[in-house]
Specification:
homodimer, about 500 residues, alpha/beta, seven-stranded mixed sheet, five-stranded parallel sheet, 19 helices, about 40% helix, disordered C terminus
């Protein structure tokens, strides 16, 4: 394991001070052009040197005929060129003394035949010149804090805490918008492509040391260095969680992976074993990958697997209870003390079983502050799962019926819902136990957005919320084991990352 | 089985011409009040008779002191009253000659003890007066075409094709907004509550005969009349599909269901057997329940289980292939004829394997019209699954770079995307094979909404899209078996419903 992130072959790939860019032009139809647009849009603060055989200027930058003409040796070369000329240009970069590259171009091992030979050439050139490169057949790196984005699409949202290494570039760029919708973002994301030189293990090592990465996401179609993968993951998960989506376990998935990156996927049980041995939490889908990253990066770890469910509706409570049962989570009875304390808040029709079903919301402020606080304080509760259904339209209508003039009701209802999301967020902040919401309302609604923006994970399905809690328990168990905390089986908190 | 829907005990419950309403007042805090608001908001065209012991007028309606004072015998009584007075009022309704009721009030069998006795009283009163009633402990009926909505929340969106019977009222009312977001709606939805008189089997029978119901959704925590349930379902599924979510299979879910409706849930394998024997397709979650209803109600049935995946991104293609494999769907090779026909559309880096990965979109119009058409025409293809990623922002930016002035680019990009969603919708309309989209963009985006509004199901996750296709295959297999179409194992189309 590396001691310092600066020793990583990816350090200057993710944090270049200057870039030589091959393949960008003023023609929007050439693939390099939108990459230069992305680089500019992100506000990259280093120097960009477009290299172009004909154009004098590329999108406002002075272009150079050859990399050998550049006034300095750039930290990084990015190649978006037809595959057949990539070796020649990489060779020139090597001669110039450039030590790091991203080869975006496709047309290598993933196509077989000639492509395999071309890829071998790249490897030889890199070895000769002691270069390290990402790709080929990748979309590079997004490091929003360094204002670096070498991908085709513009980064959206804020820099986040998810570090990603992906064998699919789409699962980086095409998720910018998706993650921003949930208030999430990448710390640094690597598209590894064919992994001809730098591979997913190198990325994990980098992200393990990255101070902005609180959780690592992997998208895997096949692992090459099995032993190194397991060793590296094992060392990292004692400090920060790793979540992986593996595609290729089914025969059809395996064949799809083969044509996508040329990686040879293995049977599902083999990978299941690798993840288990590594202490990696496995996600079932790309949405679940990011769901688990969300809670693992944002919430404290639970001390055990006991979930209290707070609801005002029977069906959503029962569905959550059922999913908890299937996920191996427990639903403890409330302690007599808690029952005493919450009884004043409970209407006649309500149930003090778990799910705690209020049947309806007597007082909104209680429902969103005193009640979740009391439930989290129960000695039997390790986590709180809270059902959220608060349509702004209904609140507005209720206010109108209470005599608030129509023209003020909209504003008042917004204020009320804002105060409520503030209340829940405060509950989360003042307790050391995790709290997660679930809803069937749109996550674009003010109330839900207010919660998400304040750091409360809210999932648009019961199943997803429960699987997220399950991952917290599994990681807490793992941390308990790996730190030898045998007494509880669970650590009592998270070390600073 | 009933021959005519008009013979159903639920006919006048779902299609009343006049309603006696107990429990609504001018006080917003009494639970009956928002129900009257909902009834009014839906524009109910029959007569509403609020009955109130003190108020002269209730929300603009003349109130009567007693049901016995009404000028006619209403078709339906709706009771939203404290449990202890419900028997007395139901008795009065019986004396008045009212034959149908909805008992919204809770506080009966679900509470045990005295509640059980009270519920028995209701049953005896109904038997004496030959009344049929829904509930207690339910939220009644939504039949948007009859402009009837007895629930607490206002109906949203258009009348739809999903008929529902639910042991949770929340999964009806709190899904109005959710369904409208996907362009879906209820034909008629029944909240069955404690099923003291009318039960879920009666609802299935009604919905089986309902001409606006193309697919039946059930939310089940426990079945009482097992044999009748199986017989009724078996008869219906030869004509229209039934999808069920069962909660209570895990021990924790079972206990939650017990306190929710007082139904005794059985072990999961028992229910699995019941569904299998009945020809009911089981959903894993409430979101999946409506996902499956969507495709089963909106799409033609496939002739087999072969899926062609169209993508321009490797990762989403590989994930879809993996899910198809796990779901038992097959990914056929394209026929040589199709390969010849699509080759002109394929860039150099693309793959004519399945997933058909275009790697990027050379020409948007081809990608959304000629290509899916050619793929659906392949004799090896039973279904098409198409990955959608078309951010309006990117299209706008591309247009700007092509020289379209900034102020026109937004409008042009909207037009372009609208034309594309029109193209895909046409492909679906001109073929008899199902087509489903999947995306990680928001379903609120113009392009995706354009597709949904034109009848193309688009799912916000790969997994959900694949499970939806899987349900089509399962229902097609079932229909093939039940109609004795042994040769294909699949029917060739859908009979008119």
């Amino acid at each position: 394991m590396l001691k310092s992130i600066k020793k990583s072959p990816l350090y200057r790939i993710a944090n270049p001070r200057s870039i030589a860019l091959f393949g960008a032009s003023s023609n929007i139809l050439s693939m390099g052009t939108p990459i230069l647009i992305s680089l500019k849009a992100m506000g990259f603060e280093g120097t960009i040197y477009p290299v172009h055989p004909e154009e004098e200027h590329v999108q406002g930058f002075k272009a150079h005929r050859s990399v050998l003409d550049l006034p300095e040796v750039p930290d990084l070369a990015i190649l978006i060129l037809p595959a057949r000329i990539v070796p020649r240009i990489l060779e020139e970069c090597g001669k110039m003394g450039i030590k790091h590259a991203i080869v975006v171009s496709g047309g290598f091992k993933e196509l077989g035949g000639e492509g395999v030979k071309l890829e071998n050439e790249l490897q030889e050139i890199a070895n000769t010149h002691e270069m390290r490169f990402l790709g080929p057949n990748c979309i590079g790196v997004t490091n929003p804090r360094h204002r670096l984005n070498t991908t085709l699409l513009q980064y959206l949202g804020n820099p986040g805490f998810i570090g990603m290494a992906s064998q699919s570039g789409s699962f980086i760029t095409q998720m910018f918008h998706y993650l921003a919708n949930f208030g999430l973002g990448f710390s640094t994301a690597f598209s590894v492509g064919n992994e001809a030189n730098v591979d997913i293990v190198d990325c994990m090592e980098y992200l393990g040391l990255c101070p902005h990465t609180r959780v690592i996401a992997l998208y895997i179609e096949g692992i090459k260095r099995g032993k190194a993968f397991v060793e590296t993951a094992k060392a990292i998960v004692t400090r920060k969680p790793i979540v992986a989506l593996y595609v290729g376990g089914s025969e059809t998935g395996r064949l799809a992976g083969l044509s996508h990156t040329g990686a040879l996927a293995g049977p599902d049980p083999l990978y299941e074993g690798v993840f288990r041995q590594s202490g990696i939490i496995r996600a079932r889908s790309i949405t679940e990958l990011f769901d688990l990253c969300w809670v693992l990066g944002a919430l404290p770890l639970p001390k055990g697997k006991k979930v209290v469910i707070q609801t005002h509706s029977g069906g959503p409570g029962a569905e959550a209870a059922d999913f908890c049962g299937r996920a191996g989570l427990e639903l403890p009875a409330l302690s007599p003390d808690t029952i005493n304390r919450i009884t004043p808040f409970m209407p006649e029709t309500s149930s003090v079983h778990n799910p705690v079903d209020f049947t309806f919301t007597k007082n909104l402020i209680d429902y969103f502050s005193s009640i979740p606080s009391l439930l989290l304080e129960d000695k039997n509760a390790d986590m709180l799962l809270i059902y959220l259904f608060m349509p702004q339209q209904s609140v507005k209508r209720a206010l109108e019926h209470l005599g608030i003039p129509k023209d003020q009701a909209a504003e008042k209802s917004r204020e009320l819902l804002d105060a409520q999301s503030q209340s829940i967020a405060s509950v989360l902040k003042t307790h050391t136990k995790p709290l997660v919401g679930y809803t069937y309302r749109s996550i674009q609604e003010d109330f839900i957005r207010g919660l998400i923006d304040r750091g409360v994970p809210v999932f648009p399905s019961t199943e997803r919320a429960v699987h997220a809690l399950e991952s917290l328990v599994r990681y807490a168990e793992l941390r308990g084991r790996s730190t030898g905390n045998a007494e509880h089986g669970f650590p009592t908190g998270r070390s600073a990352i």
